[in-house]
């Protein structure tokens, strides 16, 4: 068998962008010029707003019904534990079958679950155990939905626009995060959280309709992977061989357990530290999303993707969380949350781009499922852990720990990368402007 040509490899694996100049501002939304992606992105914005509304309403209703921050963490655990255990199966589905069809089925199922939650809440029959069960089933839906959604973006825009589309997807997610929590907070105070679930059910229906409007002949499709033994392990071995996949995934694991449990900690801050209620919790979520939107848009301006940039963003996020632990007021805490959102999305978007752009499209579904498993599954562990720490140690100590562990992990991975690259850290006490810098190792 002759090895594939360079042209064939280029068609299978999208090259990492090594342009040394920043893209012009006119190219910030370049992927929206593609009709299929415009339809997908428009429906996705509505869907994300509704998902954020449901998420805030769900967390707050659990807190109201149980009076326990740990119960909020358990809800997070129930929703994300399927991803920790089963996400690789979703990756295999994404590589074998139509991504569009998978999304239609998964969004229909999510709409049914949101409708059930709305009926229970609006009739006054909702109990904490109902939320646990529905959150778990929704987690099973996510197992099929997320890998297909990640890979489907490449089919919509092709490899040349993939980085831009990933950044815009992150921007859309954060725009929804700005609008959804604020609207949900108002709804909870005015008419109750049940209507947030009803809105999400409607948004799921709109998403399904939008997917049927996509022109399939314009998709950049790859041939489906045939059934075979060892396909999951093939994805694992592939990921472990590539530093641009394994190191972002390792950082994402720590980031998910500690850093992405911020919603649980913000609920505790709003409820017990600042006594701000549901409206304050919605406001904090909106401020995080405001900063994250800036981070997502900033990621479209980067000319290159580098591991050191990914780790720097993760470390910066940890530092910001440590500063938040000492915030003396709601106003100060909210301002720090904006910066936290910015740093968080810089890491998440850059890591996602680096992993996708480093992966052959024929195996991308399986690789992305492993990455999502780490990212979402980590939240399943981190939610109850951080909720327990907030209740027993105090929320300020829990926030300090979340930031400190994230900083430590970023520093350790940075040192490993420096060693692999034959680099060393030097300290220069004579120069306060550059105390620490990286140099090539002697010899």
Report on the structure:
Helix 2 (about 35-65) packs parallel to helix 6, helix 10 (about 260-275) runs antiparallel to helix 11 (about 275-300) and helix 11 (about 275-300) runs parallel beside helix 13 (about 330-355). Residues about 1-20 and about 430-440 have low confidence and may be disordered. This protein has helices at about 5-10, 35-65, 70-95, 100-120, 130-155, 160-190, 195-210, 230-240, 245-260, 260-275, 275-300, 305-325, 330-355, 365-390, 395-420, and strands spanning about 425, 435-440. It has one domain: MFS general substrate transporter like domains (Growth Hormone, Chain: A). The protein has a two-stranded antiparallel ribbon. It contains 15 helices and two strands. It is an all-alpha fold and about 450 residues long. The longest helix is centred in the N-terminal third of the chain and has 32 residues, at about 35-65. The protein is globular and about 55 Å long. About 75% of the residues lie in helices and about 0% in strands.
